[in-house]
Amino acid sequence: MDSHGRDGRRVVWAVVDTGIGPLLLAATGVGLVNVVFHATGKVRDSALERLASRLGTEPVEEPGSPLLAEAIRQVEAYFAGERRAFELPLDWSLVSGFHREVLRELASGVPYGTVVGYGALAGRVGRPEGAQAVGTAMGANPLPVVVPCHRVVERDGGIGGFGGGLEAKRRLLALEGVLPEPLF
Description:
The chain is α/β, with parallel strands linked by helices. The chain has helices spanning about 40-55, 65-80, 95-110, 120-125, 130-140, 165-175; strands spanning about 10-15, 25, 30-35, 60, 115, 150-155.
């Protein structure tokens, strides 16, 4: 596999240390394409293999890449409490259909420091009975943190699931002032 994908796109990646552990950020010339939790060792390697397979190119580690520089800056500012919204171009090529529709609504319609229920988000995209499908879309989110699936919670007040783990979700919600800071 070469360093350019089927459509000629190059994929670059870097790992950024954050308050919830290392995140792998990957970008194309279109924009940020993937954010992966726990990005060390086998998790990182597996994520890079999936990206190579899905995008048809071998991702290249390039933390100084102009394609990643702004994403890294904004992620670091978010975790430092200095940024409330991400203003990044996003490459949605890893998600399509209903999942993409739900994630775009989440990205544009659920601001920092707020939460939305799975059912309410389903209603916003015209599928009021689709709470479970929204949960599936959250699990398929290729851009967590930046596309804030941590802001989707259960109707009864539970925080719901999270691909990065429940402790990471609690920390993100605490960072945004939705939950008290974790005690540990």
